[in-house]
Design brief:
Layout lengths: L9 H9 L5 H12 L6 H11 L31 H4 L18 E3 L5 E5 L11 E4 H10 L6 E5 L12 E5 L3 H4 L18 H24 L1
Antiparallel strand pairs: 1-2, 2-3, 4-5
């Protein structure tokens, strides 16, 4: 009965320890015959061996260098890996998984930017391809590298619109000035009506330039 403590005599424990190397099925059958204890299951004896810490010499793993029991044995047609149902899902030589990311594959980041797989080695993994921001990649192909201290901003605030004409070059110092909020006391560029976006951008540029000139004067004083 489950939950009931099973008792063993001293002779039974001695026999169980002496024969602990037997496979569990043979171990159980021999114990039942020896002591007429059919109230004990193979699981009970297995648990006893574990509690006692009796080593059986088996780890449940294939030892290094061992030969598989079915090595060289061909699989019969219609069975195992040769069964028609199994063949349907087997990889074919030279085949690629359905989720292989090919050159030019695109994905969207959590911030809404589009990334594209290009034919350049990934400096972190050494893989033959790597993902880059698509809008930056296309803009630099058309205009050259983005200068130091500058960045790109989507004119229409749509980060998934990667057309180079939709991205303008602005100083990084302008970015916090167009984000809006209490700190700037101006409307956020991305949520503003289209007709106000150029005005907000010009205001941010002027404010950033004034701040830059002020710092230069203070440094020269």
């Amino acid at each position: 009965m489950k939950g009931t403590w099973i008792k063993y005599t001293v002779d039974q424990i001695a026999w169980l320890e002496a024969n602990r190397l037997l496979r569990i099925s043979d171990y159980h059958a021999a114990f039942c015959r020896q002591f007429d204890r059919y109230d004990v299951s193979a699981g009970n004896l297995h648990a006893l061996r574990k509690r006692k810490g009796w080593k059986t010499g088996r780890t449940g793993q294939f030892s290094k260098g061992s030969t598989p029991f079915n090595k060289g044995v061909p699989c019969e047609p219609g069975k195992g890996g040769k069964h028609p149902n199994a063949r349907k899902t087997q990889f074919k030589k030279g085949g690629l998984p359905h989720n292989t990311k090919y050159l030019g594959h695109e994905r969207v980041t959590k911030d809404g930017y589009v990334e594209v797989s290009i034919d350049e080695e990934n400096p972190h993994t050494g893989y033959e391809r790597r993902y880059v921001l698509k809008h930056l990649y296309l803009w630099e192909k058309a205009n050259g590298p983005v200068p130091d201290g500058m960045c790109l901003k989507a004119v229409d605030s749509n980060r998934s619109n990667t057309d180079p004409s939709n991205w303008i070059l602005i100083p990084r110092g302008v970015l916090p000035r167009i984000n809006g909020g209490r700190a700037t006391r101006v409307m956020a560029y991305d949520t503003a009506p289209d007709e106000l976006k150029p005005v907000l951008m010009n205001m941010a540029r002027v404010d950033q330039k004034v701040s830059e000139l002020r710092r230069k004067r203070q440094g020269a004083a």
